[in-house]
Amino acid sequence: MEATFIAFSKFGDSKSTGKEMDNKKFSKLCKDTGIMGKLVTSTDVDIAFSKHKPKGGRTITMKEFEALLEELSVKRFAKLSSEERKAAMADLVANKEPATAGTTKTVKAGGTERLTDTSKIYR
Prior knowledge:
The protein contains seven helices and two strands. The protein is mainly alpha-helical. The chain has a two-stranded antiparallel ribbon with strand order 1-2. α2 (23-33) crosses α3, α3 (42-52) runs antiparallel to α4 and α4 (62-76) crosses α5 (82-93). The longest helix has 15 residues, at 62-76. The radius of gyration is 20 Å and the shape is elongated.
């Protein structure tokens, strides 16, 4: 779980040390790993994050992250016992990387190729 925490906390921020995660990155983690769904909504995730972050702070540490996952597991896996919930949540989160699906890809349009190809300009 620690590797997942570090991967998501560093995602999109080259200055990040990987020791703290903000709400935006935690929400992305919940979406990408499948924690968020029909039983756990984005509102539930935001409220739980606000409960576990330090007063006046904007980020959580690994210790707070684990407590936060435990709280969300109660809602996500309501019918399982405490130990089964922990194992199920660990399976969801373990060794996951941030997804980049749906991001903008560079497209080589006709205009770009025409304007950057010097063999066609100087004849």
